Amino acid sequence: MDNNKADTHKRIYGFVSKGSVNPRLKPPMRLYWVILGLGIGFIIIGVFRSEFETILLNALILCASCIGLR
Amino acid sequence: MKLKQTLSNHKPATNKRTLVQIASLIFANSYVLSFLKFCPAPILNCHACPLAVMACPIGSLQHFVGQRRFPFALVGFFTVTGALVGRMTCGWACPFGFLQDILFKIKLFPKKLQVRTGHGLSKASRYVVLLGLVIIGAFATGEPLFCKLCPAGGLEAGLPLVIIDPSIRAMVGTLFIVKMVIVLIFIVVAILIKRPFCRFICPLGTVYSPFNKVSYVRLKVDKELCNECGACRAACPMSIDPYLDADSKDCIRCLECTSCPAIKVKYGT
Which structural domain, as residue segments, surrounds residue B251? Predict the structure, then answer.
């Protein structure tokens, strides 16, 4: 791998390849982006199911368990 | 000797972290922003606290489980927070973690106890609390069982409300006394051990912990620079060995260990 290819590989992947890897390959999608997308999807579903209203109502009621009244 | 040298060169994240923790404590309990109560906080902050501005995620989770509804929004919220920073909110933003950091600085007893995290009791107890009390307990009884025993609720909601409100004071019963005993035990243990609640009990930390392995913010140990002197463990509020597993499930990403040149924060890759 000549210097030019090595530089390209380092720029894309963050490390210099020791083998002959095609530097034009796209970097793999990181797992956190997938998880982040999944999380945002869940939040959107939650919005449509009015879950934030439920959270609000639950938080506004004086919680007897939290205070220790029951 | 090497450990002492490393610690003397110590430029920890403590000062910056303390400022962020104070800011988070003020923000989470600023009262005027209580219109945000529809949104769960990424930290353990009881929403029954008279000053709280956001909902407690564990209280809300138990409410949904008790109603036998799947909490899509909460799961999404945990997933987004976990994917971005893992357990970093525990180390930088949680007021209850901050309280434990302060309590551990009190030199009331002649000796502090050294307890390793991620071994035996500490490994299992958090999962027992999360599954047993928060999920199965709430599902079976329809009640927030964890809230009944939560020392954060006792300290942030129970104690101030009972002090300021005579009508609430009149309703105090055995459970309140039990909660106060738990709070007292917690305070004594937190003076002796670093962050005992985070290590052995916190269900929110348990929810976030698997994300440490895949989150955007992670730690990287340069094995060539690391001589395993143990300075990182001494600085760690969770007493873990970052050089053995930088992405440990017990790591709260406080970044205290990054004062060592061998440990660096890694974004993304």
Answer: 213-267
pLDDT in tens, B196-205: 999 999 999 9
More confident residue, B269 or B268: B268
On whether both B220 and B140 belong to a single domain, the answer is no
Alpha-helical regions (H) of chain B? 2-8, 14-28, 57-66, 72-85, 88-92, 95-105, 121-128, 138-141, 145-149, 151-153, 159-164, 166-169, 174-192, 196-200, 203-208, 231-235
Report how many Cβ contacts below 8 Å link chain A to chain B.
Answer: 150
> Testing the interface with A: which of B36, B60, B62 to mutate, by most A Cβ within 10 A?
B60
B233 lies in some domain = yes
- Whether B194 maps to a domain, the answer reads yes
Indicate the pTM of the whole model. Answer: 0.85
For residue B1, being part of any structural domain is answered with: no
Compare all CA atoms of chain B with the CA of A47 and give the residue at the minimum distance.
B73
Question: Is the CB of residue A30 less than 8 Å away from at least one CB of chain B?
Answer: yes
Tell me if chain A has a CB within 8 Å of the CB of B172: yes
Q: Which two tokens stand for residue B190?
A: 């937190």
> Are residue B60 and residue B42 in the same domain, yes or no?
yes
Contact at CB, A46 and B59, closer than 8 angstroms: no
Q: What is the pLDDT of residues B143-171, one digit of tens each?
A: 999 999 999 999 999 999 999 999 999 98
**Pairing label, strands B263-267, B217-221:** antiparallel
- For residue A39, the chain B residue with the least C-alpha distance is B76
B134 shares its domain with B98: yes
Residues B248 and B118 in one domain: no
- Average pLDDT score over chain B: 89
Would you place residue B113 in the very low, low, confident or very high pLDDT band (cuts 50, 70, 90)? confident
- This model of the complex carries an ipTM of 0.87
Q: Which residues 221-260 of B are in CB contact (within 8 Å) with A?
A: none
How many domains is chain B built from? 2
